[in-house]
């Protein structure tokens, strides 16, 4: 297995303690870290996490949590080609298309972990919920 792309909904499940999703999100991330699998997301996800988390937590807390995330998760580049691919894709959600094509272009990712697997139905990568990931890799 190569690296794992972690979608913002999974990160937000952890940061905002969203039940009943939080536990599986934490376990999936811990499993990746234990197996030394690279964890990745894009700067778009950081912006999304910041925007959503700021509704629930003070700015200073959210910024600190993002800094903590960055000690475990690396940021992928989103280049012009990935943007064009996303614009021309069959993805219904442009943000998800950007995530997908950035992950593909990196050559480092073979799996996307998200709770919204239907949003990635056009992906050439494996797409799993945290729960399915844990069942597949335990």
Describe this structure in words.
It is a single chain. By secondary structure, the chain is an alpha/beta fold. 52% of the residues lie in helices and 14% in strands. It has seven helices and five strands, in the order βααβααβααββα. It has helices at residues 8-15, 22-34, 43-53, 59-69, 80-87, 94-106, 130-137, and strands at residues 3-6, 39-42, 74-76, 109-113, 126-128. Strands 3-2-1-4-5 form a five-stranded parallel sheet. The protein starts with a strand and ends with a helix. The mean pLDDT is 94.
Sum up the structure in keywords.
five-stranded parallel β-sheet; globular; alpha/beta; 7 helices; 138 residues; 5 strands; 52% helix
Describe the secondary-structure layout:
Elements: E1 3-6, H1 8-15, H2 22-34, E2 39-42, H3 43-53, H4 59-69, E3 74-76, H5 80-87, H6 94-106, E4 109-113, E5 126-128, H7 130-137
Parallel strand pairs: 1-2, 1-4, 2-3, 4-5
Q: Assign a percent range to the helix content.
A: 40-55%
Taking pLDDT < 50 over at least 5 consecutive residues as the criterion, the unreliable ranges are: none
Structural class: alpha/beta
First and last CA, distance: 13 Å
Molecular shape? globular
What is the number of helices? 7
Order of strands, widest sheet: 3-2-1-4-5
Task: Give me the count of strands.
Answer: 5
Mean pLDDT across all amino acids:
94
Radius of gyration: 14 Å
The helix/strand order is EHHEHHEHHEEH
Largest sheet: 5 strands, parallel
Briefly summarize what is shown:
This protein is an alpha/beta fold. It is built from 7 helices and 5 strands.
């Amino acid at each position: 297995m190569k690296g794992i792309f972690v979608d913002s909904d999974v990160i937000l499940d952890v940061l905002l303690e969203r039940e009943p999703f939080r536990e599986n999100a934490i376990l999936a991330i811990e499993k990746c870290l234990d197996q030394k699998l690279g964890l990745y997301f894009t700067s778009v996800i950081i912006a999304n996490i910041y925007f959503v988390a700021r509704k629930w937590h003070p700015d200073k807390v959210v910024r600190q949590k993002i800094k903590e995330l960055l000690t475990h998760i690396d940021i992928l580049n989103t280049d012009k080609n990935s943007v064009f691919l996303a614009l021309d894709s069959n993805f219904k959600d442009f943000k998800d298309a950007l995530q997908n094509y950035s992950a593909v272009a990196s050559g480092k990712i073979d799996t996307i972990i998200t709770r919204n697997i239907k949003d990635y139905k056009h992906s050439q990568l494996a797409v799993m919920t945290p729960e399915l990931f844990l069942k597949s890799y335990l």
